[in-house]
């Protein structure tokens, strides 16, 4: 609207002057300065137009048209400068606002990242705790299995030792009886006592207590009785010749 009003003012002030008259006037007259400044302003060179109008006004300070044109151009230039400064200030404010928003957003992102990192660390600690617990359980289970294996081996060794003691003990009564027969001159009590002492000495040499020896003898006696009973059950019946084969 300002440009249109200036153009209308120029047209009214210029009247019906033709382009040839403007060219012939040059810059040596008020109308020449006015027309040149107006032409520069229309083509978009407002700074040059103002400079031309000011030059003409210095030469013709009483010319009304040049003064009005200078006032219009100066006001327009001031308005443009003001608008430009306002626009620059708005851009600056917008940039500062964006930076402030970014700063406010960054702490939130930092808090979220920190929270995520903390949750990740807690989850990792839970997993490590579960793994340690599983390892401890496995170690305890392996320890139990090892103890059971050792108990089994120890039981097997004890069983083998008992079998060996049983074998040794099987010959002991016969030797005792033989020695008792050779010492028939002694009394029965002395023979039994001597036999008992020798038996105890042999048991002591085998690291076996008298009670344990009795248990072994008792077990051997029971095994022998069971063996005899089984043999009796399995004994074949005698054939009766008085009866036919069929």
Please supply descriptive tags for the structure shown above.
246 residues, single chain, rod-shaped, mainly alpha
Describe what is shown at a glance.
This protein has 246 residues and is an all-alpha fold. The chain contains seven helices and no strands. Helix 1 packs antiparallel against helix 5 and helix 2 (19-25) packs across helix 3 (30-42).
How would you describe this structure to a colleague?
The chain is mostly helical and 246 residues long. Among the domains are: 95 residues, no CATH class; 72 residues, no CATH class. It has seven helices and no strands. The longest helix has 119 residues. The chain is rod-shaped, with a radius of gyration of 67 Å. About 5% of the residues have low confidence.
The general outline is rod-shaped
Overall mean pLDDT score?
A: 75
Tell me the structural class.
Answer: mainly alpha
Radius of gyration: 67 Å
Fraction of residues in β-strands:
under 5%
Distance between the termini: 148 Å
Q: Segments where pLDDT lies below 50 for 5+ residues?
A: 15-26
How much helical structure, as a percent, in the residues?
over 70%
Secondary structure tally: strands = 0
| Total count of helical runs of at least 4 residues | 7
Largest sheet: none
* SSE string, helices as H and strands as E: HHHHHHH
């Amino acid at each position: 609207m300002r440009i249109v009003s200036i153009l209308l003012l120029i047209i009214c002030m210029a009247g019906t002057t033709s382009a040839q008259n403007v060219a012939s006037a040059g810059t040596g007259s008020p109308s020449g300065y006015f027309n040149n400044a107006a032409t520069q302003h229309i083509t978009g060179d407002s700074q040059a137009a103002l400079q031309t109008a000011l030059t003409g006004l210095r030469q013709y300070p009483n010319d009304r048209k040049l003064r009005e044109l200078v006032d219009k151009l100066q006001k327009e230039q001031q308005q443009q400068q003001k608008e430009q400064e306002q626009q620059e200030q708005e851009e600056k404010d917008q940039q500062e606002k964006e930076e402030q928003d970014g700063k406010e957003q960054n702490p939130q992102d930092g808090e979220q990242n920190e929270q995520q990192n903390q949750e990740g660390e807690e989850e990792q600690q839970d997993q490590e705790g579960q793994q340690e617990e599983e390892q401890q359980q496995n170690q305890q289970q392996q320890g139990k299995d090892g103890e059971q294996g050792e108990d089994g081996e120890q039981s097997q060794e004890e069983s083998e030792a008992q079998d060996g003691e049983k074998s040794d003990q099987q010959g002991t009564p016969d030797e005792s009886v033989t020695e008792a027969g050779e010492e028939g001159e002694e009394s029965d009590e002395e023979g039994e006592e001597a036999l008992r002492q020798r038996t105890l000495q042999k048991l002591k040499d085998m690291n076996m207590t008298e009670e344990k020896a009795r248990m072994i003898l008792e077990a051997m006696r029971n095994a022998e009785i069971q063996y005899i009973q089984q043999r009796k059950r399995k004994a074949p019946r005698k054939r009766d010749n008085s009866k036919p084969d069929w």
